[in-house]
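sry for the spam today, last one i promise. struct tokens for design, 379 residues
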């Protein structure tokens, strides 16, 4: 297959873009060894973080079905327009292979996030791409525009990388997608590991096969302060530190304060009730409470008298669940929906305490009944 349309325009006029100097910067054996070790480590950490990550909560249906705002549509159109111009430059220069660089992939992800309706998949994508904000920052600190010779090509470079940071700020500010708790680093870990796997599996293989230095996977940039044989290992370390910092600082600066407060309260309540979950059966707190109540009712029906059974029978949790569902339907705003979730968790915690109290009462009543029966026999 003829790939000239993708790589013919790439040359070594710009230092360390391709060529013998870049290919011989380190041996391919070392490149593959690093790729295997880093990829396996990232996969193991990714699996570990995925199990620990908090579940994604979505607002009510009426909130999900709301039409896109004018600002969101304009931002989506601008992002799409800039990316279309960038693709035109790539085809004109016959350097389409550079579309595989992470900033272009992140641009496509952000366009999809702006266009799609909120769902668990889009929320997960948003949280993952929040850990790629190092790309726009490094593009401004260490710009690489020497190969951009067409009119407005350099302007497109600056505009695209500026939008890569503006879009997440807009989404966070307007509450389109809910970010994870500020103290939760599981989603940060997932995002960083996916970024590293993309570099060491996809970009590393294509760079070695084509001889093009995609995102500096073949050789270090001229301006790289960690230039040397270990520059890729150094990049894994310093980017694993930089990405979480940029993520959390951006959330702290631009996130809605009420949303952050609700997330903290929900996380605190969740941690308090974690001990009440049966991990082996994957039961939620509500289901666990229902099973505890059912067990307690079974014991009272076998041990007590019919009158005691009628007095000691507890209301099932389904009634409470139905009330919560009805209450949720009457609260369509995001703030009210978050309050309902917090109220549910407090309600669940209170019901757990009530069950424990009822259990103690049952034990005391059964003990009293046995004492009375023994006293009657003695008389």
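last one done:
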């Amino acid at each position: 297959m003829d790939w000239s349309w993708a790589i013919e325009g790439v040359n070594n006029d710009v230092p360390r873009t391709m060529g013998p100097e870049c290919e011989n910067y380190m041996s391919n054996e070392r490149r593959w060894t690093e790729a295997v070790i880093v990829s396996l480590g990232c996969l193991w950490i990714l699996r570990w973080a995925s199990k620990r990550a908090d579940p994604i909560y979505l607002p009510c249906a009426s909130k999900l079905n709301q039409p896109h705002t004018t600002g969101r549509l304009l931002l989506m159109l601008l992002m799409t327009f800039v990316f279309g111009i960038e693709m035109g430059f790539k085809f004109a220069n016959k350097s389409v292979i550079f579309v595989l660089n992470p900033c272009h992939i992140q641009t496509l992800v952000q366009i999809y996030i702006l266009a799609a309706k909120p769902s668990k998949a889009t929320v997960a994508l948003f949280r993952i791409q929040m850990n790629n904000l190092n790309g726009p920052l490094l593009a401004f600190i260490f710009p690489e525009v020497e190969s951009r010779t067409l009119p407005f090509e350099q302007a497109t470079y600056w505009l695209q990388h500026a939008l890569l940071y503006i879009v997440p700020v807009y989404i966070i500010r307007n509450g389109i997608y809910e970010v994870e708790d500020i103290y939760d680093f599981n989603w940060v870990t997932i995002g960083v590991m996916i970024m590293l796997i993309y570099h060491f599996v996809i970009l590393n293989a294509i760079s070695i096969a084509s001889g093009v230095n995609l995102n500096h996977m073949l050789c270090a940039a001229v301006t790289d302060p960690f230039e040397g044989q270990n520059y890729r290992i150094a990049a894994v370390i310093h980017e694993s530190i930089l990405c979480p910092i940029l993520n959390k600082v951006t959330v702290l600066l631009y996130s809605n304060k009420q949303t952050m407060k609700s997330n903290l309260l929900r996380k605190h309540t969740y941690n308090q009730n974690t001990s009440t979950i049966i991990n082996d059966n994957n039961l939620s707190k509500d289901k666990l409470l229902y099973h505890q109540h059912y067990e307690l009712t079974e014991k009272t029906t076998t041990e007590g008298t019919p009158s005691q059974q009628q007095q000691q029978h507890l209301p099932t949790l389904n009634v409470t669940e139905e009330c919560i569902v009805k209450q949720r339907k009457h609260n369509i705003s995001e703030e009210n929906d978050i309050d309902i979730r917090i109220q549910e968790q407090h309600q669940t915690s209170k019901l757990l305490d009530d069950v424990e109290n009822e259990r103690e009462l049952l034990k005391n009543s059964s003990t009293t009944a046995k004492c009375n029966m023994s006293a009657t026999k003695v008389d």
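Confidence is low (pLDDT under 50) at residues 288-335. ok im logging off now
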